[in-house]
Amino acid sequence: MTVSPQMPGPTAHSYFSQRLRLHYVDWGNPGAPPLLLLHGGRDHCRNWDWVAEAMRGEWHILAPDLRGHGDSQWAPGGSYNMADYVYDVAQLLHQSGRTPVSIVGHSLGGAIALAYAGTYPQHVSRLVAIEGLGLPPKLQAERARKSAAERMIAWIDELRGISGRQPRRYPSLQDAYRRMQEENPHLSPAQALHLTQHGVNRNEDGTYSWKFDNYVRLIPPFGATAEEVHTLWANIDCPTLLIRGTESWASDPVEDGRIRHFKRARRVNIEGAGHWSQHDRLTEFLKVVRAFLEE
């Protein structure tokens, strides 16, 4: 179904998770099957607007801002762990009653989607993870070789550095827009402007700053081991699609062997796309995802 450009955009809502007020948008069509869209780190829920506009006729789409991102509150103390992100998703789906659900997640959002689906396999009907497997195995192995104390010291040092770092202020929206274009040269001018407009707040002095909390950049010193993550992946029951852009830094899950941890997964490479294949090659991305979700 093609949606008229005159149709209204999404409605904004909030819910509470661990005392945080978290924001999400609802694209309507409540009688349709639910589809949850999870953005990546330092992004926001309006990253999905082009995908949602194309698919809202077939799906009831919900797109949250992760804690510390977009219009959701920042975590007190600035600690962001995978368990907390998964809890936030579990709360949203529990409160909305929208399970079983199909999920599309990008990067950090893909990792959250995989962890949620491995925890509640009965709640997920189909799953798309766009480069959501985390660091390539080589980098994971380098990190694993460091002792717990070394990881803790590195985290403390980085946290101290970020604590003294003020959010960058851009003199104008145009300056922030140029930074968005630098981050992803694949973006069209219209895409970059849209993402910038929804991704910044205007400060009292008239400058602009990104909405995300700088603390989300940090990787916690402790967390699930690779073996535990692989066990979660193996617990996923639904068909799973792993998408990767051929021009991205992410490693190929077939070549690096990580796809073997899934029961029912397959990989699709999108040619000419970087880390954000849903932006870089939207038409091809929609074709691939629609075909998968409709199988």
Can you put this structure into words, describing what you see?
The protein has one domain (11-168, 213-293): Alpha/Beta hydrolase fold, catalytic domain (Rossmann fold). The strands form two sheets. Strands 1-2-4-3-5-6-9-10 form an eight-stranded mixed beta sheet, sandwiched between helices. It has a two-stranded antiparallel ribbon with strand order 7-8. The protein has 295 residues and is α/β, with parallel strands linked by helices. It has ten helices and ten strands. Helix 3 links the parallel strand 5 (101-106) and strand 6. Mean pLDDT is 95; it is low at 1-5.
Uncertain ranges: 1-5
How would you write the strand order of the largest sheet?
A: 1-2-4-3-5-6-9-10
What is the averaged pLDDT score?
95
At CATH level 2, the architecture is 3-Layer(aba) Sandwich
* Global Rg: 19 Å
Number of helical regions: 10
- By DSSP, the count of extended strands is 10
> What is the helix/strand order?
EEEHEHEHEHHHHEEHEEHH
Residues in helix, %:
25-40%
Please identify the structural class as seen in this structure: alpha/beta
Q: Strand share of the residues?
A: 15-25%
Stated plainly, the CATH topology is called Rossmann fold
